[in-house]
């Protein structure tokens, strides 16, 4: 079917040409998501408003063997919503209603395009909130969170997205509508909902999502601690957990990250010479929170903290949190491009791994800032580069891969919450054997038999392994010579 | 300076668009994206398109130009953007580019030249129009026209606006106010020069009078430079940067000569434009420095009162009020708390916050005339957000006042729409009655 025939069929399904973008130049804005190193232009973008419309579109595309992929707000950091195969992008942002809230049983039902933070805002009047809080929560959708099994600062204590979604209506890649999970209790049989969550849009499109909501804790206290040395901060993290406290959040930022965000509208005023800032939050019953706060402040003091403060006002607390949450976006203040990695390590290896990252930074000549969920051992090294310098994008990608290898080598993993997408697809080989990857492909084939739904993401295709390896060795060799020759003249070194 | 593809002498700046890291934080605060859900009509999308056009990967055709002109220039995206992308400036530059090489249709060009190049920049012509309009309003012609039904020929949104146009003031503030305030005794807080603007002085000279009274009451010396002209904001927003520069130069000369410590205004759009004059002259060796000096003196009336210290009115004003943040006060000038603080200083006045007070009301310069459909959607949302138990909606920008008035009129609602400084002026006036 040629392009215009497809467009007119899509338009017929949606009933209006306002809901189909198809001219080449109006697809440009959909070339990538929050991961900009790789791009691809979709064939069209459609804006359904109901589950039935999504199903009808998918049936059409499945029948015609046209590849497609779902997209939320496009804040993904691993390229999950990027059209590599000229897909039709199914944008879910117009499905943005809060359908139902049941305060007695603490459940809410949302459409997939509903914005994460909006849920907390809209139920705040009943003293309720939605716990998973990715830093992008003011922009990302709950559908996108489901697909990425998003984490967030408060996931240390409350768990990631999968612990908060209880049921979902899903359009399968063949166009059938399925209901997974159960609003109350455990669903019988295989945990298909669990499989869908974190599947990065490769097993189906969520069109209605039932989430668990929580009562706001009685008290919250937020502590900011500044350390001269990173190891002192890391040791503080370990000791707090060791003392049996489970803070609601425990976040760390290094010097470069603090500098970047302090240049933005979210200025805190970090001293120029400290190596790390910790942002720790405790919540719960009033007395417990007060006691834990004192205990944490003590632990900080035992570790040569430069200064430690407890937020006095809501405004101060909000500023501290914005400063942490906006840190990725603030990289633009210090670097034309950045690539954020998402490795996981055992918490006890923090000091060691940060030192390894510093070495990689020095040897590659690329600056690396660190912002992360220290309590979970979920690192986010932000690799600064300049795409207008030849080969620097490739170099940054290679540095990213090297860092992930360090994480895996100390017993961790290549992604904590941002997904594999296209960014880390080759790193999957480092984590899994061929047999394990094949098993995952077999699972995907059950749901996505024609491999039309977000193909080329998450799991590397079999057979291409040898090819990919050959190509990547070639690139590495090429880059190594390039790095050697350009090193020293690089203005971006630390 | 490193610049993008040079389509004409004032290309889109590379160092502005290259700052965008594509994080998407700006999506959800953008009123056009909220309405449409189309990334082409989002800040991130617009920056991406402008960048592509500047780099030559995308033709500078309607796929770029439409999103650029559909932007409200409300700058809500700049408030949240952690990376500091100056979307407003980029949009204005891109509009400049577009105008320089798209052929406008005959009528469009005629209207553009008439308003942006002939009427607004010329105080004399504005005066004549003011007189004509006043004649129209006071001489029964308006009633005759209204009764005749001729207004039905106008599109609805213009008809609603006609209905709520404030009565044209008898005299423009610029011409009736003395050049210098006589009051010199007790002037302890400095000298201000009042900027009177163009349309503002036709319809809202009462607000100027109120501003002057409030300034005098707070020990400021006031001057009103007679040679000043329109600030050029509309021209900048529309992309007519050449015309805007001519007007800006004139104002810079006039106001710097006045010797005032501060240049004070009560229109958010003009304030933002005048604080950013330096951007217009970023590569002008002579005017760049003068523009910087000029901009450093510009203050909104609420801002200056807080800065130099104001006196709390000694009267009571029993009113329930809600406050709407004009985009060019909140987002462009980051003035949010000052007006609220002034309102709270009035005894008896209850301030009730509305939802999303800082979402654009759709007025946006002449956007409500050029893009009536989007403007109407945003107006509806704004009205829906007004708490229903308030009597007054206060704000710091005449454009928003007209837009919200027209909306209230269309829905048959009777709330007062006032400038913040008018409430303050009223409270000070009541003082005398108290004594
Ligand atoms: C500055 C910044 C900070 C971030 N911080 C965090 C963080 O702290 N924690 C974290 O976990 N992530 C974080 N992220 C990553 C990102 O915001 C999350 O992955 C988020 O869940 C993506 O949501 P989205 O709506 O933008 O999805 P998109 O980017 O549009 O899509 C992401 C993936 O989900 C699929 N998808 C989208 N909607 C659906 C649906 N309805 N059904 C099935 N599949 C779907 C897409 O195909 C794609 O593969 C951050 C991103 C940025 C830019
Ligand atoms: S918030 Fe700023 S940096 Fe992020 S996408 Fe928007 S304009 Fe770009
Ligand atoms: S200025 Fe306003 S309308 Fe324009 S992109 Fe920014 S938020 Fe959207």
TrEMBL record, chain A:
InterPro entries: FAD-bd_oxidored_4_C (IPR004113), FAD-bd_PCMH (IPR016166), FAD-bd_PCMH-like_sf (IPR036318), FAD-bd_PCMH_sub2 (IPR016169), FAD-linked_Oxase-like_C (IPR016164), FAD-linked_OxidoTrans_Type4 (IPR051914), Oxid_FAD_bind_N (IPR006094). Its EC number is 1.-.-.-. Keywords: FAD, Flavoprotein, Oxidoreductase. It holds the Pfam family FAD-oxidase_C. Residues 38-216 form the FAD-binding PCMH-type domain. GO terms for molecular function: FAD binding; oxidoreductase activity. SUPFAM superfamilies: FAD-binding/transporter-associated domain-like, FAD-linked oxidases, C-terminal domain. This is FAD-linked oxidoreductase. It comes from Sulfoacidibacillus ferrooxidans.
From TrEMBL, chain B:
Binds 2 [4Fe-4S] clusters. It comes from Sulfoacidibacillus ferrooxidans. Its cofactor is [4Fe-4S] cluster. It catalyses: glycolate + A = glyoxylate + AH2; (R)-lactate + A = pyruvate + AH2. InterPro entries: 4Fe4S_Fe-S-bd (IPR017896), 4Fe4S_Fe_S_CS (IPR017900), Cys_rich_dom (IPR004017), Glc_ox_4Fe-4S (IPR012257), Helical_ferredxn (IPR009051). This is Glycolate oxidase iron-sulfur subunit. Component of a complex that catalyzes the oxidation of glycolate to glyoxylate. Residues 10-41, 61-93 form the 4Fe-4S ferredoxin-type domain. Its EC number is 1.1.99.14. It is an enzyme of class 1 (oxidoreductase). Keywords: 4Fe-4S, Electron transport, Iron, Iron-sulfur, Metal-binding, Repeat, Transport. It comes from the Bacteria. PANTHER family: GLYCOLATE OXIDASE IRON-SULFUR SUBUNIT. One of its GO terms (molecular function) is glycolate dehydrogenase activity. Pfam families: CCG, Fer4_8.
């Amino acid at each position: 079917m040629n392009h215009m025939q497809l467009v007119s069929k899509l338009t017929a399904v949606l009933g209006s040409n306002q809901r189909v973008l198809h001219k080449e130049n109006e697809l440009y804005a959909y070339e990538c998501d929050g991961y900009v190193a790789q791009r691809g232009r979709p064939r069209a973008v459609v804006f359904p408003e109901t589950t039935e419309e999504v199903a009808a579109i998918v049936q059409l595309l499945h029948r015609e063997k046209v590849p497609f992929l779902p997209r939320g707000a496009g804040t993904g950091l691993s390229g999950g919503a990027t059209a590599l195969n000229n897909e039709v992008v199914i944008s879910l942002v117009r499905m943005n209603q809060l359908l139902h809230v049941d305060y007695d049983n603490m459940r809410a039902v949302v459409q997939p395009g509903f914005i994460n933070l909006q849920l907390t805002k809209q139920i705040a009047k009943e003293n309720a909130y939605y716990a998973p809080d990715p830093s992008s929560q003011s922009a990302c959708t709950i559908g996108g969170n489901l697909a990425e099994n998003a984490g967030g600062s408060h996931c240390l204590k409350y768990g990631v997205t999968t612990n908060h979604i209880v049921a979902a209506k899903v359009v399968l890649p063949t166009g059938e509508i399925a209901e997974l999970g159960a609003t109350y209790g455990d669903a019988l049989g295989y945990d298909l909902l669990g499989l869908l969550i974190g599947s990065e849009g490769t097993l189906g499109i969520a069109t209605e999502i039932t989430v668990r909501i929580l009562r706001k804790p009685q008290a919250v206290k937020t502590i900011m601690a500044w350390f001269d040395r990173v190891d002192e901060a890391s040791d503080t993290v370990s000791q707090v957990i060791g003392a049996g406290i489970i803070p609601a959040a425990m976040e760390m930022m290094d010097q470069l990250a603090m500098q970047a965000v302090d240049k933005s509208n979210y200025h805190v005023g970090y001293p120029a010479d400290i190596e790390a800032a910790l942002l720790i939050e405790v919540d719960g019953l009033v007395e417990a929170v007060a006691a834990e706060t004192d205990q944490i402040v003590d632990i900080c003091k035992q570790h040569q903290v430069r200064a430690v403060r407890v937020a006095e006002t809501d405004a101060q607390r909000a500023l501290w949190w914005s400063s942490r949450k906006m840190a990725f976006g603030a990289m633009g203040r210090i670097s034309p491009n950045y690539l954020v990695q998402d490795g996981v390590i055992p918490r006890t290896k923090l000091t060691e791994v940060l030192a390894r990252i510093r070495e990689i930074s020095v040897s590659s000549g690329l600056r690396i800032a660190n912002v992360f969920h220290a309590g979970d051992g979920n690192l986010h090294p932000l690799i600064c580069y300049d795409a207008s310098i030849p080969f620097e994008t490739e170099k940054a990608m290679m540095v990213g891969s090297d860092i992930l290898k360090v994480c895996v080598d100390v017993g961790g993993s290549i992604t904590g919450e941002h997904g594999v997408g296209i960014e880390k697809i080759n790193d999957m080989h480092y984590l899994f054997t061929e047999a394990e990857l094949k098993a995952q492909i077999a699972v995907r084939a059950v749901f996505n038999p024609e491999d039309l739904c977000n193909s080329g993401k998450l799991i590397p295709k079999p057979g291409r392994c040898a090819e990919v390896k050959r190509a990547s060795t070639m690139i590495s060799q090429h880059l190594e010579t390039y790095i050697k020759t350009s090193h020293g003249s690089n203005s971006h070194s630390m | 300076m490193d610049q993008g593809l040079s389509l004409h002498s004032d290309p889109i700046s590379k160092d502005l668009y290259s700052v965008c890291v594509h994080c998407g934080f700006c999506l959800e605060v953008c009123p056009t994206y909220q309405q449409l859900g189309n990334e082409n009509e989002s800040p991130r999308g617009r920056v991406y398109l402008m960048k592509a056009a500047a780099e030559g990967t995308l033709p500078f055709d309607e796929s770029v130009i439409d999103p650029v002109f559909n932007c409200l220039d409300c700058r809500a995206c700049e408030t949240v953007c952690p990376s500091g992308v100056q979307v407003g400036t980029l949009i204005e530059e891109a509009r400049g580019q577009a105008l320089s090489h798209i052929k406008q249709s005959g009528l469009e060009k005629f209207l553009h030249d008439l308003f942006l190049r002939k009427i607004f920049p010329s105080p004399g012509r504005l005066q004549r129009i003011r007189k004509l309009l006043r004649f129209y309003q006071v001489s029964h012609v308006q009633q005759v026209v209204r009764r005749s039904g001729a207004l039905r020929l106008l599109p609805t949104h213009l008809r609603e606006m006609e209905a709520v146009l404030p009565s044209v003031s008898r005299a423009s503030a610029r011409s009736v106010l003395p050049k210098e305030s006589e009051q010199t005794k007790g002037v302890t807080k400095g000298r201000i020069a009042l900027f009177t603007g163009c349309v503002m002085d036709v319809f809202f000279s009462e607000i100027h009078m109120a501003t002057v009274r409030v300034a005098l009451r707070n020990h400021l010396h006031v001057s009103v430079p007679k040679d000043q002209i329109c600030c050029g904001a509309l021209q900048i927003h529309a992309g007519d940067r050449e015309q805007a520069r001519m007007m800006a130069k004139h104002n810079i000369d006039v106001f710097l000569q006045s010797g005032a410590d501060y240049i004070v205004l009560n229109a958010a759009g003009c304030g933002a434009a005048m604080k950013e004059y330096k951007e217009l002259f970023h590569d002008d060796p002579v005017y760049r420095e003068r523009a910087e000096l000029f901009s450093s003196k510009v203050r909104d009336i609420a801002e200056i009162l807080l800065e130099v210290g104001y006196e709390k009115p000694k009267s009571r004003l029993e009113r329930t009020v809600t406050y709407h943040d004009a985009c060019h006060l909140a987002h462009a000038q980051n003035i949010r708390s000052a007006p609220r603080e002034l309102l709270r200083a009035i005894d008896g006045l209850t301030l009730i916050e509305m939802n999303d007070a800082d979402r654009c009301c759709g007025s946006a310069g002449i956007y409500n005339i050029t893009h009536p459909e989007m403007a109407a959607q945003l107006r509806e949302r704004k009205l829906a957000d007004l708490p229903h138990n308030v009597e007054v909606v206060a704000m710091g920008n005449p454009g928003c006042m007209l837009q919200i008035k027209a909306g209230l009129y269309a829905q048959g609602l009777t709330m007062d729409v006032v400038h913040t400084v008018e409430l303050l002026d009223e409270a000070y006036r009541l003082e005398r009655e108290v004594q």
